[in-house]
Amino acid sequence: MKVRVRYFASLREALGAGETLEATDGSTVSQVRDALIARGGAHAQALARTRAVRTALDQTLCDESAALHDNAELAFFPPVTGG
Q: Where is the chain membrane-spanning (predicted)?
């Protein structure tokens, strides 16, 4: 299945605006993040498990156990801080 991945804020600066990935049926947000980290390089740094990263599935905040579906839009972004 196809998943559209979008990156925002500092993640966008490191990885670009986004990409389209092929994922297996039943994949979760966590599995896609792990696959991106496994690429190494900028993906491994930007999405590292030691970094706080928020996720949204189809423009709704979600946790990493959320299941993906064909043509899902998955967004990664850093947590927002206020002042």
A: none
Per-residue pLDDT of 42-71, as tens digits, reads 999 999 999 999 999 999 999 999 999 999
Domain ranges in the chain are 2-77
Q: Three-class SS of residue 23?
A: coil
pLDDT confidence band for 10 (50 / 70 / 90) = very high
Is 11 in contact with 76 (CB distance < 8 Å)?
A: yes
Separation CA 15–CA 11 (nearest Å): 6
CATH code that applies to domain 2-77 = 3.10.20.30
> Any bridge partners for residue 28, and if so which?
67
Task: Give residue 53's identity as a one-letter amino acid code.
Answer: V
Nearest to 64 by CA among 41, 22, 40, 36: 36
